[in-house]
Amino acid sequence: MLRIIRVPISREDIRRLAEESFGDLVKAVVDLGRGIMAVGGELHADEEAALLEDGSRQTDLWGINLYPSMEGAGWIEYDSMINIRPSQGNRSREVQDVETRQRISRVVNTLICD
Q1: Which ranges constitute the DSSP H helices of 1-114?
Q2: pLDDT tens figures, 81-100
């Protein structure tokens, strides 16, 4: 079930979403401009579309995968087709810019609490 996360939720909530969809992971799209994210879609593109409809800007959206059972920095995977953006200097599915990764991590760790 796709949800836009605006206020903190628990990692247990994310774990339940994972179990309902892919088993061990949840797809998510983070809006760096607004500090929110969409989770639980079948495709990153579904979450991206929901955020765009909600008022997000394309350039602020980055796709990730969350592995709620993992610990440490490895629970966030910075990989999605929506991340391929040559115009923003990202020519790969993986978020290549270290600062962008750090910003994504801050939003995720603000919105998902242990």
Answers
A1: 11-20, 44-53, 98-111
A2: 999 999 999 999 999 999 99
In the chain, where the domains are located: 3-113
- Structure tokens that stand for 86 in this block: 């040559």
14-59 residue pLDDT tens: 999 999 888 899 999 999 999 999 999 999 999 999 999 999 999 9
pTM: 0.96
Quote the CA–CA distance of 82 and 41 in Å, as a whole number. 14
Q: Strand pairing of 9-10 and 112-113? A: parallel
Residue with tokens 């059972």: 69
Residue 19's Cα: distance from chain center in Å? 17
